[in-house]
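Expect chain and fold; see below:
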Amino acid sequence: MISLNDFKKIALEDKPVFDAHYRQFPPTHSGELFTTMVNWSQYVEYRYARIEKSIVILSKSKNIMILHPPSGKNSFDILKKVIALAQRENILFGFIKQNEKNILSIKFPSLKIIPDRDFYDYVYRASDLARLPGTKYGKIRNRLNKFTKNFAYTTEDISEENIDEVNEFLKRWCLWRDCESDELLENERKAILYSMSHFTDLGLSGLALRINGTIQSIAIYEQMNRNVVVVHFEKGSPDFDGIYKAINMETAQRAQKIVPYINREEDLGIPGLRQAKLSYHPDHFVEIYYISKEDLDTMPI
């Protein structure tokens, strides 16, 4: 039997634990990434427990606790232990991926497993975002062409040499967006600044775009598994229409050299963000599901 006492708050020094685990069991959803969890730890409290050769995540935000399915070799016995803990502690059981959904559907055919659309990851072909081919990308190409016509720009990798300038840009970006007036934006600001403070420790890569010698856009990304790069953050100045199209394309052109796919994370149910992500025509989604507490209580574990 496992208990809440088995869970430890995730901290930077736990990265080797996750690195070793994910070499054997690569993550497929951005929410599983160590970088995501440690970056956002001031907004969502993440804890983890090691159960045999699996890792189980417990997340808590705004008094909502969610137990995640175990990451590791498929084991129904461990899955049952996690579900039993959720039942005992009246905790939501969520962030269920397709393979775990399949197992649960076979074992519990009448169980209602609910899509959590706001947390679906968007996954694109890297070559599509790099080349923007065909008529479906026509509007994006037009915006990009207008940007490149109006603004001469250069790009460079984020490194120790320019990271102070990146931080200055991020301060300006938060002033433009008035981060302090929006809880999510303010916590995103904290998450980005944390990633910048531990850029090398977290093994991140990044791209900066300059106009007239000043950084006006950035992208922060990392390789998620052998097939996917995940883009954690992408920010641009509002003074240059089309700059997001440019940083997106430039990032994709780098990513396509190492992986076939780019994961651009979820939309959190934000209408404008959902529309923007859909406009780039995802190849597929990494679907996420949950089980209501009422249905969880009926499971014969």
